[in-house]
From TrEMBL:
Protein name per UniProt: TetR/AcrR family transcriptional regulator C-terminal domain-containing protein
DNA-binding region: 38-57
Entry-linked InterPro entries: Homeodomain-like_sf, HTH-type_TetR-like_transc_reg, HTH_TetR, Repressor_TetR_C, Tet_transcr_reg_TetR-rel_C_sf
UniProt-listed Pfam families: TetR_C_1, TetR_N
Species, as recorded: Streptantibioticus parmotrematis
ATP-binding is among the record's keywords: no
Residue intervals of the HTH tetR-type domain: 15-75
Length: 230
Protein backbone atom coordinates (compact mmCIF):
# COMPACT_ATOMS: atom_id res chain seq x y z
CA UNK A 1 0.00 0.00 0.00
CA UNK A 2 1.39 3.44 -0.91
CA UNK A 3 2.39 5.70 1.97
CA UNK A 4 0.56 8.91 1.17
CA UNK A 5 2.58 10.84 3.75
CA UNK A 6 5.72 10.34 1.62
CA UNK A 7 4.23 11.99 -1.43
CA UNK A 8 5.13 15.55 -2.34
CA UNK A 9 2.25 18.02 -2.02
CA UNK A 10 0.39 18.65 -5.23
CA UNK A 11 1.12 21.98 -6.90
CA UNK A 12 -1.84 24.37 -7.19
CA UNK A 13 -3.56 24.11 -10.54
CA UNK A 14 -2.30 26.58 -13.12
CA UNK A 15 0.98 27.41 -11.35
CA UNK A 16 3.26 25.27 -13.52
CA UNK A 17 5.36 27.02 -16.15
CA UNK A 18 8.62 26.48 -18.05
CA UNK A 19 10.70 28.34 -15.48
CA UNK A 20 9.42 26.17 -12.64
CA UNK A 21 10.04 23.02 -14.66
CA UNK A 22 13.63 24.04 -15.43
CA UNK A 23 14.33 25.06 -11.83
CA UNK A 24 13.10 21.67 -10.64
CA UNK A 25 15.12 19.91 -13.34
CA UNK A 26 18.31 21.66 -12.24
CA UNK A 27 17.60 20.75 -8.61
CA UNK A 28 16.93 17.12 -9.53
CA UNK A 29 20.10 16.83 -11.60
CA UNK A 30 22.24 18.47 -8.92
CA UNK A 31 20.96 16.38 -6.03
CA UNK A 32 19.98 13.05 -7.59
CA UNK A 33 22.27 12.94 -10.61
CA UNK A 34 21.62 12.43 -14.33
CA UNK A 35 20.87 8.71 -13.97
CA UNK A 36 17.90 9.51 -11.71
CA UNK A 37 16.51 12.13 -14.08
CA UNK A 38 13.23 10.93 -15.57
CA UNK A 39 10.04 12.71 -16.51
CA UNK A 40 8.25 10.90 -13.72
CA UNK A 41 10.83 11.91 -11.11
CA UNK A 42 10.68 15.49 -12.32
CA UNK A 43 6.89 15.52 -12.13
CA UNK A 44 7.01 14.15 -8.59
CA UNK A 45 9.46 16.88 -7.61
CA UNK A 46 7.06 19.46 -9.00
CA UNK A 47 4.03 17.88 -7.37
CA UNK A 48 2.20 17.40 -10.66
CA UNK A 49 1.25 14.60 -12.99
CA UNK A 50 3.76 13.58 -15.63
CA UNK A 51 1.53 14.80 -18.46
CA UNK A 52 1.55 18.31 -16.98
CA UNK A 53 5.29 18.50 -17.65
CA UNK A 54 4.71 17.41 -21.26
CA UNK A 55 2.43 20.41 -21.71
CA UNK A 56 5.54 22.62 -21.47
CA UNK A 57 8.25 20.40 -22.98
CA UNK A 58 8.11 17.66 -25.57
CA UNK A 59 10.30 15.31 -23.57
CA UNK A 60 13.40 14.68 -21.49
CA UNK A 61 15.90 15.64 -24.19
CA UNK A 62 14.31 19.03 -24.71
CA UNK A 63 14.41 19.72 -20.96
CA UNK A 64 18.05 18.68 -20.71
CA UNK A 65 18.99 20.96 -23.61
CA UNK A 66 17.13 23.83 -21.97
CA UNK A 67 18.82 23.15 -18.61
CA UNK A 68 22.24 23.14 -20.25
CA UNK A 69 21.53 26.43 -22.00
CA UNK A 70 20.20 27.92 -18.76
CA UNK A 71 23.27 26.96 -16.75
CA UNK A 72 25.75 28.13 -19.38
CA UNK A 73 23.90 31.44 -19.54
CA UNK A 74 24.84 31.90 -15.87
CA UNK A 75 28.57 31.84 -16.70
CA UNK A 76 29.86 35.39 -16.82
CA UNK A 77 32.87 35.33 -19.12
CA UNK A 78 35.09 38.40 -18.79
CA UNK A 79 35.01 40.83 -21.72
CA UNK A 80 37.87 40.38 -24.14
CA UNK A 81 40.49 43.09 -23.61
CA UNK A 82 43.74 43.07 -25.58
CA UNK A 83 45.25 45.48 -23.06
CA UNK A 84 45.03 42.96 -20.21
CA UNK A 85 47.73 40.32 -19.69
CA UNK A 86 46.58 36.96 -21.14
CA UNK A 87 47.27 35.32 -17.77
CA UNK A 88 44.71 37.52 -16.02
CA UNK A 89 41.95 36.96 -18.56
CA UNK A 90 42.58 33.22 -18.73
CA UNK A 91 42.40 33.06 -14.95
CA UNK A 92 38.96 34.66 -14.98
CA UNK A 93 37.76 32.32 -17.70
CA UNK A 94 38.85 29.28 -15.71
CA UNK A 95 37.28 30.57 -12.50
CA UNK A 96 33.95 30.95 -14.30
CA UNK A 97 34.07 27.36 -15.59
CA UNK A 98 35.14 26.02 -12.19
CA UNK A 99 32.24 27.81 -10.51
CA UNK A 100 29.73 26.36 -12.96
CA UNK A 101 31.02 22.78 -12.70
CA UNK A 102 31.44 22.79 -8.92
CA UNK A 103 27.90 24.08 -8.43
CA UNK A 104 26.39 21.92 -11.18
CA UNK A 105 28.62 18.85 -11.77
CA UNK A 106 25.90 17.24 -13.88
CA UNK A 107 26.80 19.71 -16.66
CA UNK A 108 29.66 17.41 -17.66
CA UNK A 109 27.24 14.55 -18.13
CA UNK A 110 24.87 16.76 -20.10
CA UNK A 111 27.67 17.80 -22.43
CA UNK A 112 28.81 14.21 -22.87
CA UNK A 113 25.37 12.83 -23.65
CA UNK A 114 23.80 15.68 -25.62
CA UNK A 115 25.72 17.34 -28.50
CA UNK A 116 26.36 21.03 -27.96
CA UNK A 117 24.05 23.06 -30.20
CA UNK A 118 25.30 26.56 -29.43
CA UNK A 119 28.53 28.30 -28.53
CA UNK A 120 28.66 27.20 -24.87
CA UNK A 121 31.91 25.28 -24.68
CA UNK A 122 33.17 26.34 -28.10
CA UNK A 123 33.39 30.02 -27.19
CA UNK A 124 35.36 29.29 -24.02
CA UNK A 125 37.81 27.02 -25.85
CA UNK A 126 38.38 29.60 -28.59
CA UNK A 127 38.97 32.37 -26.05
CA UNK A 128 41.33 30.26 -23.93
CA UNK A 129 43.39 29.04 -26.88
CA UNK A 130 43.63 32.57 -28.27
CA UNK A 131 44.93 33.83 -24.93
CA UNK A 132 47.53 31.07 -24.75
CA UNK A 133 48.72 31.94 -28.26
CA UNK A 134 48.82 35.65 -27.35
CA UNK A 135 50.93 34.71 -24.32
CA UNK A 136 53.58 33.38 -26.73
CA UNK A 137 52.85 29.65 -26.93
CA UNK A 138 53.03 27.98 -30.32
CA UNK A 139 50.19 25.79 -31.61
CA UNK A 140 51.17 22.44 -30.03
CA UNK A 141 52.16 24.07 -26.74
CA UNK A 142 48.88 26.04 -26.58
CA UNK A 143 46.87 22.86 -27.21
CA UNK A 144 48.68 20.98 -24.45
CA UNK A 145 48.41 23.92 -22.05
CA UNK A 146 44.67 24.28 -22.70
CA UNK A 147 44.15 20.56 -22.07
CA UNK A 148 46.16 20.69 -18.85
CA UNK A 149 44.24 23.70 -17.54
CA UNK A 150 40.88 22.11 -18.37
CA UNK A 151 41.84 18.78 -16.81
CA UNK A 152 42.79 20.58 -13.62
CA UNK A 153 39.64 22.73 -13.63
CA UNK A 154 37.28 19.81 -14.20
CA UNK A 155 39.03 17.64 -11.61
CA UNK A 156 39.05 20.41 -9.00
CA UNK A 157 35.38 21.19 -9.60
CA UNK A 158 34.36 17.55 -9.23
CA UNK A 159 36.48 17.26 -6.06
CA UNK A 160 34.67 20.26 -4.58
CA UNK A 161 31.24 18.99 -5.63
CA UNK A 162 31.93 15.53 -4.22
CA UNK A 163 33.11 16.98 -0.93
CA UNK A 164 29.96 19.05 -0.68
CA UNK A 165 27.82 15.97 -1.35
CA UNK A 166 29.65 13.89 1.27
CA UNK A 167 29.31 16.63 3.88
CA UNK A 168 25.60 16.91 3.19
CA UNK A 169 25.15 13.14 3.51
CA UNK A 170 27.09 13.07 6.77
CA UNK A 171 25.48 16.20 8.16
CA UNK A 172 28.87 17.92 8.46
CA UNK A 173 29.18 21.50 7.22
CA UNK A 174 32.85 21.92 8.16
CA UNK A 175 35.27 20.01 5.88
CA UNK A 176 38.21 21.01 8.09
CA UNK A 177 36.62 19.44 11.15
CA UNK A 178 35.84 16.28 9.20
CA UNK A 179 39.49 15.92 8.18
CA UNK A 180 40.76 16.64 11.68
CA UNK A 181 38.46 13.96 13.06
CA UNK A 182 39.59 11.50 10.42
CA UNK A 183 43.30 12.04 11.06
CA UNK A 184 42.98 12.16 14.85
CA UNK A 185 42.79 8.38 15.08
CA UNK A 186 45.81 7.66 12.87
CA UNK A 187 49.02 6.42 14.52
CA UNK A 188 51.63 9.22 14.16
CA UNK A 189 54.51 6.78 13.83
CA UNK A 190 52.96 5.26 10.71
CA UNK A 191 51.46 8.45 9.22
CA UNK A 192 53.73 11.27 10.37
CA UNK A 193 52.88 13.57 7.46
CA UNK A 194 49.12 13.17 7.66
CA UNK A 195 48.98 13.66 11.41
CA UNK A 196 51.60 16.41 11.43
CA UNK A 197 50.02 18.38 8.59
CA UNK A 198 46.38 17.77 9.54
CA UNK A 199 45.64 21.46 10.32
CA UNK A 200 47.23 22.61 7.06
CA UNK A 201 45.42 19.94 5.03
CA UNK A 202 42.14 20.88 6.68
CA UNK A 203 42.69 24.55 5.87
CA UNK A 204 43.28 23.70 2.21
CA UNK A 205 39.76 22.27 1.75
CA UNK A 206 38.26 25.65 0.93
CA UNK A 207 36.84 25.46 -2.58
CA UNK A 208 37.60 28.45 -4.77
CA UNK A 209 40.66 29.72 -2.82
CA UNK A 210 42.32 26.31 -3.08
CA UNK A 211 41.41 26.07 -6.76
CA UNK A 212 42.91 29.50 -7.40
CA UNK A 213 46.11 28.49 -5.59
CA UNK A 214 46.59 25.52 -7.91
CA UNK A 215 45.46 27.44 -10.98
CA UNK A 216 47.98 30.23 -10.35
CA UNK A 217 50.78 27.71 -9.93
CA UNK A 218 49.76 25.95 -13.15
CA UNK A 219 49.46 29.14 -15.19
CA UNK A 220 52.77 30.44 -13.87
CA UNK A 221 54.44 27.21 -14.91
CA UNK A 222 52.89 27.41 -18.36
CA UNK A 223 53.17 31.13 -19.05
CA UNK A 224 55.82 32.47 -16.71
CA UNK A 225 55.53 35.34 -14.25
CA UNK A 226 51.91 36.62 -14.24
CA UNK A 227 52.54 40.37 -14.20
CA UNK A 228 49.33 42.33 -13.67
CA UNK A 229 47.34 39.19 -12.99
CA UNK A 230 44.66 41.03 -11.02
Amino acid sequence: MTDRSSRRPRAPRGTLNRDRVLAAAVDLLDHAGPDAFTMRALAQRLGVGTMAVYSHFQGKDEIIDAVRDLLFAEVELPPADARRPPHAELRELCRAVYRLLSEHPSVLHLLATRPVQGDEGTLFAERALGLLRRAGLDGPAAARAYTAVMQYTVGAALWTARGRKVRAAQGCDDPAERLRSRFAGLPPDRYPCLTGLAPQLAAAQDGMPQYEHGLDALLTGLLGDPDGRG
